[in-house]
Amino acid sequence: MTAQRRLALYCLLLPLLAAPTVWLVADHYLRWPLAGQVVFGVASLLFVWHFGIPGVVGGVRSMERVPQVAMLLIGGPVPAIVQNVIAALIFPFTHAGYRQNSWRIAVLRALSNAAMLTLMLVAGALVYRALGGEYPLPPLKLSHLLPLTGMALAMQAVNLLMLIAYHAAAGRPVAKSPRDLMNVTDLLFVPVGVLAALVWLHLGAVALLLFSLFVVLFLVSFRSGHSPDPLVAGSLADDSHLSGAQRLDQLATQINDEVQRTFVLDEFMFGILDRAQHHLEVRLHLMQGQRMPRVVRRREEGLFGWVVENDEALLVADFEHAPEDVRRRTKIVGPPPGSMLIVPMHYENEVIGIISVQHLLPNQYRRDDLTLLQDVADRLARRVADARAFEELDDYRADLEKRVNERTAELRELVEERETLLRELQEKNSQLDRLSREDPLTGLANRREFDHALGRELATAGRHGRALCLALVDLDHFKRINDRFGHSSGDQVLVRTARLFTEHFRAGDLVARIGGEEFGLLLPDCDLADAVQRCERLRQAFADADWRDVHPELQPTLSVGVSRWQGEPASRLLARADAALYAAKRAGRNRTNAEESSLLDASTPPPE
Predict the structure, then answer these.
(1) Residues 6+ apart with CB under 8 A from 120
(2) Is the same domain home to 403 and 451?
(3) Distance from the CA of 53 to the CA of which of 191, 310, 339, 439 falls in 20 to 30 A?
(4) CA 268 to CA 291: how far, in whole Å?
(5) Are 269 and 354 in contact (CB under 8 A)?
(6) Are 246 and 334 members of one domain?
């Protein structure tokens, strides 16, 4: 039986097996919530699945134990099961990454998740009652810790077993190593769910609303300090560990490690086109864990050439029954493949390389696997392009160093030639140094340069008793701009924003891009009132700017938080500016906010 059919059969049979288990807890405490409370419970689950803390297994975001435990302890297992099943049936249809852009996968995951949550809650409720747990949860005592702990461990055990079963049915690895399976993220949030139940039962709905607001603010703070986004439900969820200047060989090994977390494979290939686009070099070829020699092929040669020339991903489910043209083009090294995936990697509207996975058995990959691998390739394309550029520059620098050393030793009389080569080497090193301090998109200083400059300015201000202000600027709803108008429009907005900064601030001020859509301003010899006025002029100019050449419907805004140095460390100054920025966000965005409320601009527009 193929993995595709096995997964479909598993997802269809699992609800039939899970549904009868509800009768095991039908005689437990039952308190049906009002319709509005049901909506709140379902919305809470959908919220944490979309915006929660990244888990260990599969890159899924979750804090689901908070609403699940709260539901179980407030109304009993049956109402909790109903709310969880409703949310589970909805979620895959609201999250394209989780369903891997496949409605078939959405249906299968909706069914399997609904059954898995049913079994988790039934197991948790049975263990909770068997250990003396009470419904509804009374004021907490030491004796309640045992049943609550048993409930949490039972739910976690069922969750882990069902996750392993799902990935086994799908023919994919659930984790790369046993360490990856030790996911305690959900267990850490069980006490928060218990606290939510206590707040609801003993303090009322208003207190629960305030508690929920606190959880939301915690998530906003957490996500602002962590790069979001790339394996979500089996796709690369976060490629921040692949960032930074590095060579292609190092990056290729890391890409292989991440792909193996998602795909069962016997062979992996990563190839890169040369700058002239004439040849494709296979930089990493692993066959059953063994590294194969590098090979260089003509651009149009073989199946890789067909993928590059046609700019089209290729799925071969069963190589033995593949079209004759596919079999003829395939260059087989070692055992013949059973099934394979090959996807092109795009950067700036051109193919720069390929990623391929192969398995010795047929029918191991499906159409949604092809979509998933293509998403992986497209997400990593910028990193690959940067690594290629860095490698070329690094190789050129290494070559220059070698030439300098050889000429110095062998041709000491040719001093002029040696000095020319040394100058060229210094120019390349200077270029590398500039690239390490400059944001490549906007041309502004990057976070590293900003941190260094902040330290220098604090020292100068301390020695000479000068004023110093810090402003943090964040583009409002920037993700919506990327989602609605495309990442190219988002890049244009960032470039023009940088230009506006340079027009509105002095030569002695430092403007830096310190995050995706966040900028930092250092304003030496500037008091708080003057800094607020200058930032407000910037905000107004940004809001009044004509963006129609980027997109006719585009009208971005920004929010600013300003703080004045009071002799504290840099981290504290940044924290106060960040707090002022978040206050501006909470007040409706598109405004300038300072740490003293009296300096707020009364003409700022109302919240959006």
Answers:
(1) 68, 154, 155, 158, 159, 162
(2) no
(3) 439
(4) 10
(5) yes
(6) yes
Grade residue 378 by pLDDT with cuts at 50, 70 and 90.
confident
Asked if residues 193 and 70 have their Cβ atoms less than 8 Å apart, the reply is yes
pLDDT for res 172: 67
The last residue of a domain, from among 353, 388, 423: 388
**Tokens linked to 359:** 């398995």
Q: Which of 14, 370, 268, 273 is nearest to 158 (CA)?
A: 14
Picking from 14, 11, 21, the residue whose alpha carbon sits closest to that of residue 124 is 21
The whole domain housing 138 covers 3-224
Q: Which of 372, 404, 436 is the last residue of a domain?
A: 436
Interatomic CA distance for residues 510 and 449, integer angstroms? 10
Would you say residue 381 lies in a domain?
A: yes
Pair type for strands 61-62 and 290-291: unpaired
Spacing of C-alpha 372 from chain mean position: 15
56, pLDDT greater than 50: no
Per-residue burial over 7-16, b if 16 or more Cβ lie within 10 Å, else e, is bbebbeebbe
536 touches 592 (CB < 8 A): yes
Quick one: how far is CA 3 from the chain centroid?
28
Question: Residue 599: its pLDDT value, please?
Answer: 41
* Least trusted range by pLDDT, from 139-153, 171-185, 319-333, 509-523: 171-185
What is the chain's Cα-based Rg?
Answer: 29
Number of domains in the chain: 4
Query: Higher pLDDT residue, 114 or 98?
Result: 114
Cβ atoms 454, 470 nearer than 8 A: yes
| Tokens at 499, concatenated | 């230009």
**Per the confidence metrics, is the pTM higher than 0.70?**
no
